[in-house]
Amino acid sequence: MQWKMDWGGFAVSLYLHQFNWMLLWRPDVMLCLVLLGGAYAALIGPCGQTFGFATPARKDQVMTFALVLAILYIAMGSPLNLIAQRCLFTAYVLQMLLMTQVVPPLLFLALPSWVWESVATSSARKKFLKIASSPMVALIAYNTLAAACLLPGVVQANLSNDLVHFVLQGSLVLSAVFLWWPLMSTVQALPQLTPGAKLIYLLFAGNLMMPIAVFLFFSVNAWYPTYTQTAAEIGFPPIEDQQLGALLMAVGMLLIYAARALPAFVFYSESIWYK
Length: 275
What we know:
- It is a single chain.
- The protein is mainly α.
- It contains 15 helices and no strands.
- The longest helix has 29 residues, at 238-266.
- It is globular.
């Protein structure tokens, strides 16, 4: 197995050598993220002063936003993106995990609470946010979309059409923000769940994606033609790539949700169910 993994990594690196540096390192994505960083700096600086309730961002929030930008670049601008789009299903899953399970909770930590409050200022937006971030809707919307993004036909469309890829990825990230809203909200009108309710919420969140992960892991056939063809070219067994991706998805999500649930267990008391 170790030899296979070493050979697989070497074969992937050889495969990537056929692409130029612009495809490998995506300067266009880097430019977009630099502009996003500039927008953040303006928001917490001069522009933020136009809001009467604005307060400067803390140093840890600025550092967290820088981490968000770095993770976004790894997911969308580094060779990982090219591997995910053309080479390995495992990289596709890793990209999904970074975009939906790592970036959204960090965004809640990176943005000052007044930013989230300003999003919910109008009654129309508040009504929409109340529905979209309600636990049942958020769980069903995210997990349905995430499971759909693993279906062979959807994956094929995602890999072959830039517009479909943009729409699916944007929708998935947005649904992930709403998934994390009941856990990390800083909006007083749309507060977090109680610690006890968070445990139940995370239990469902961790289990709803398990059926497709288990099916992928135990399937005897490779599901994805694009990855099967490329894996054959580089000598990486496609069924093992599929199993590794399914395992990464299941274990990665469970570890992230467990880390979020840990504080409620550590500080357990009867009060976790009502405050």
